[in-house]
């Protein structure tokens, strides 16, 4: 029995992606008074901390309570982000009228349909709406309302869940009162992106911890009369603030301009009359008229009458027009009512933000749709929310940077204690002690650090723009440098968008005929009529438009299409689309049609069943002019069409022919037909597609060629050479995907590919996993030996590496029944086919969970979720669907991928170098100040200004100007600051700097002309010791910039960075000039006390040169391969024990004694294809796929496990014939027990 949940803590959206924990709080006057007393005592500092941590303020000033009593709620999402939201009460309409109890009951029904459909759904009881009103709160633009029957808040929904399809056809419109009531709850139909006022934005930015620390530093420096650098910091901060505010408001305005729209729409009232209103007044349940001339949809609506041609590029990235048809009316069919589902009925939904190009219906009848979702609940609203509230980026470098700053803060605390002890013993005044102690904090933790860190990113962004790659998220650039696996969509990304016709293989009398290259040679055969009619093409502005596959197929027939005209009576129907040959004389030459020479050969398309990825097919019902009956033509994936055809019409070698073409990467479409006799037009219009799409006659196969882009193979070779693992994740057929993977060398020639299948008949049956060779049906598995657990060992011939390939269906079933297997599959998985958009995103998330830094490249079609989820998302589409992708390439190929990775590596190494440089600068200056504090002195204001402004600022800016290395190398940049190599490098350099400073300081004290410093009240620090420490440290800052400015293999040499070189020369020359013989006015300005001996001044330059070469040699030794190998050898066992994620999984797989539940038989791909195409064996595929249907995944040769991974990668395979009838597969718990993967 599950433990009882606390009444004050529960979860919202249980089981969903946006699941959140919620706790209720109410006011506590005593806590509030106590908290404000402490705020006043700390002069507001405590309140500033609570501004950064609002959850702390909530806990300190409020008390926990039941959600029903809460006035504030604390939410924690799946990323551990905390939100504090105020609970409000809805009690009035927009016009100020009170909402009565009955109004609240009516408008808060989650289904809003009980009176019409006869189902109550989850409509709330009277207790949900209290006498005071309806409690609610808003989080991330989504409203949550109180549901008393569940004693919790629930997400407010429209009509998208649990509504019967019959409801939409019964909708008659809302009255003005009903609409106002629903608008009070659902809000206006707006996707509002507020442009934050400048004052509010300024206040928010100034309270950022970085700027607060800068304000603290400036105030402290002003007390210390360090006005010059304070003024510079103020100017830099003002410029930085202005730039940030301008960029934020520019992005907000751009997003607002993209998503905000409002137009006049016509809605039906309950009286049947139509009224024009603004679209922001729409509410769920409104009946909307879709203009015949088209419009931009302002809500999600279900089409109930008429057809619409829609451009959905805003959501999918594809500008291919899509035909939307009315939702089936259960009252006109015998199949009964069904529950509406947004995914299953997407072909009947007009989504918000999409463009309706044309709306059609016969006569003067209106094209009507019922509003189901408005505002941020719509599909467009979800997309905008994902942009406004992105998933937080978890980057090791950023985490370590904060930890490192914490370590610097600890060093600052040590320095503060050191300063306090010295100055108290010396008897300095309190104010002097406080200023000097706090000043040490601004030295160790430099206020300019964040600004300096952005330099490399800004330059990388500019270089990307010059290479036609545009970045809307600059902070994602560093992430690109850590990428070690890159996922690619196939169609439009690796291959060309369009398809080329290869051939047609007609079938007559259950036998394949000769392959035909020129379709026009087939004359008026049914296969040609099927190609000319079975499509969703339409004419838009006198141009034929539609799916590229349909376009190419239709163009090959050399027929022409005519949209519905007035003269439609000869077809005995209302509005047909007509197709006819362009060359009728040639077509009529066919002997079989000599008897109807006088009748034009035209075919009218009277009904269309759109392509469904769930059903993997589309079909049309047509009637030839002069014909006495209707015909049905269907096309789709070969396995689906073959399952619908009569067995006696299928060629015996169907699977072998199919396998022959799919293995070569061709896209194969099956065609079929059926004569519909004794059926009238009215009955035909009401018929369900399942009743007519059966008993088909197989017509043949359509072979389409999807050519690989010429840039694909070189890029994949670059990535493999850089140890970046390429992965293909596509909605296409698995064999087509494997062929492309081989062609672009994502899978090498001699690599072995294992196809993973899950055989499951549904219900309570146990699923089983079957491992098959993915490509060669002649290869079989030889059993070597069987151990006590029936694990089978095999040898594989010439296998350099083992790859897994699986489909979306297999992914879904393994995720459901064998989730522990998925991490091990994705470590070696290379081809993921038939993957829906959700599954693509799941794959990216799983790769991230096991430690990969994941990149994703797609053309925007079905890739939006994966592009947003990946560490680096690159869109090849300029459609609005890619607006959430960090990178967009103008070049429509994957050459942008190595460009982004190279620039990312350069930016990451630059950020590392700048961070180390800033840390080295801070500690070096900390050492200088601590040495001078020992004698009661300090650096003067102008020496600080020279170091901070002239040296540090200019070197930091030009440091990041070095461009990326032109080649991708196998090494990957370090992503952790807190790791052995960067820590040793920084520590050793600082040790050298400290030793050189101390030795130089002691050396000057031994000189005969040396005059010790005498403390004074005028802060006159003119003395030999201050001068020597300043001069030697000036060179050290220059040395550090050179040492930490890494070149190859991730950046070009610093000798190519002419700006940086010029800066180094100028800084070095000025420092030498100041150290040797400065102008008297400059020496007085800097308060320098130069040595009377020119020899000593030269020795300072010599010490600086020794310091430089010593540091340079030391850094080269630390970077040397030999030292790294020695460290690995010494620390190997300890480091190996710390491995986690995909590295640990890979080692696990290599050391496993056996893996994989096995079948002892061999199975051909043709057998598996036939098995998986049977509904009784495998459940209906519900994945979203690309294209109009292809051959499904098939396999051959059962693969058996038992060898270690090393053996599988090295042993030879011996061919042996086995009994194909001896089939033993492990199912259920056996499968789980023996699976070592």
Automatic annotation (TrEMBL):
Protein keywords: ATP-binding, Endosome, Magnesium, Membrane, Metal-binding, Nucleotide-binding, Phosphoprotein, Translocase, Transmembrane, Transmembrane helix
Catalytic activity, reaction form: ATP + H2O = ADP + phosphate + H(+)
Disordered, as annotated region: 1176-1201
Lineage top rank: taxon: Eukaryota
Top EC group: translocase
Classification via InterPro entries: ATPase_P-typ_cation-transptr_N, ATPase_P-typ_cyto_dom_N, ATPase_P-typ_P_site, ATPase_P-typ_TM_dom_sf, ATPase_P-typ_transduc_dom_A_sf, ATPase_P-type_domA, HAD-like_sf, HAD_sf
Any single biological process term in GO: intracellular calcium ion homeostasis
Localization annotation: Late endosome membrane; Membrane
Pfam families: Cation_ATPase, Cation_ATPase_N, E1-E2_ATPase, P5-ATPase
Domain Cation-transporting P-type ATPase N-terminal: 170-221
Entry's EC annotation: 7.2.2.-
Polar residues: compositionally biased ranges: 1176-1194
Residue ranges of every copy of the P-type ATPase A domain listed in the record: 264-387
Signal peptide feature range: none
MF-aspect GO terms: ATP binding; ATP hydrolysis activity; ATPase-coupled monoatomic cation transmembrane transporter activity; metal ion binding; P-type ion transporter activity; polyamine transmembrane transporter activity
GO cellular component, one term: late endosome membrane
UniProt domain P5B-type ATPase N-terminal: residue ranges: 17-146
Family of the protein in this entry: Belongs to the cation transport ATPase (P-type) (TC 3.A.3) family. Type V subfamily.
Protein name: Cation-transporting ATPase
